[in-house]
Amino acid sequence: MDAKSLEIGATYYRITYADVAQTMPGIEPLVYAGMSISDPPSDESVKYYFQDAVSVVRFGLGVRWGQEMQPADGTSDLNPDNDEGRVYCVHEASEIDEVIVDLQALPAEIEATIQRAKELGFPKLSKAKGKWV
């Protein structure tokens, strides 16, 4: 999967890890909303916008035109003046198929995580050392 294969309205999954060894995954469903939806794309970096799945179910998929938020389907119980309720995350092309994956890639990611955890004896989280900045 690459950035060119993303489909608006399709669900993808952001994989995060609670530990540096990447043995404790967090998987968040996100819906692709479009590329550079809040600002015109610049030559150096195109941004890919994903909306959290909960707000898509509640308010519908939103797409930005200029500074005004509009629902993609023309209906929403969202207050368009303040965009309350919709949560977006932005990713770059290099993160697609690394941090953001489709459902077909998810089992391989989980299997790789299980293998790392087995090799490390299923580690447990501990308090981080050093300062949080």
What are the salient characteristics of this protein?
29% strand, 133 residues, alpha+beta, globular, 16% helix
Helix and strand layout, with pairings?
Elements: E1 11-17, E2 25-35, E3 47-52, H1 53-59, E4 62-65, E5 68-71, E6 88-92, E7 100-101, H2 106-119
Antiparallel strand pairs: 1-2, 1-7, 2-3, 3-6, 4-5
Give a written overview of the molecule:
This protein is an alpha+beta fold. It has one domain (3-119). The protein contains 2 helices and 7 strands; from the N terminus they run E-E-E-H-E-E-E-E-H. It has helices at residues 53-59, 106-119; strands spanning 11-17, 25-35, 47-52, 62-65, 68-71, 88-92, 100-101. Strands 6-3-2-1-7 form a 5-stranded antiparallel β-sheet. It has a two-stranded antiparallel ribbon with strand order 4-5. Strand 4 (62-65) and strand 5 (68-71) form a beta hairpin. The two termini are 35 Å apart. The model is unreliable at 65-71 and 73-77 (pLDDT under 50).
Which range best describes the helical content: under 10%, 10-25%, 25-40%, 40-55%, 55-70% or over 70%?
A: 10-25%
- What overall form do the CA principal axes indicate? globular
Q: What is the CA–CA distance across the termini? A: 35 Å
Cα-atom radius of gyration: 17 Å
On the 0 to 100 scale, the average pLDDT is 83
Strand order of the main beta sheet, please?
Answer: 6-3-2-1-7
Quick one: biggest sheet? 5 strands, antiparallel
Kindly state the number of beta strands.
Answer: 7
Structural class: alpha+beta
Number of domains: 1
Spell the H/E element sequence: EEEHEEEEH
Low-confidence stretches: 65-71, 73-77
Number of helices: 2
Oligomer: single chain
Strand content: 25-35%
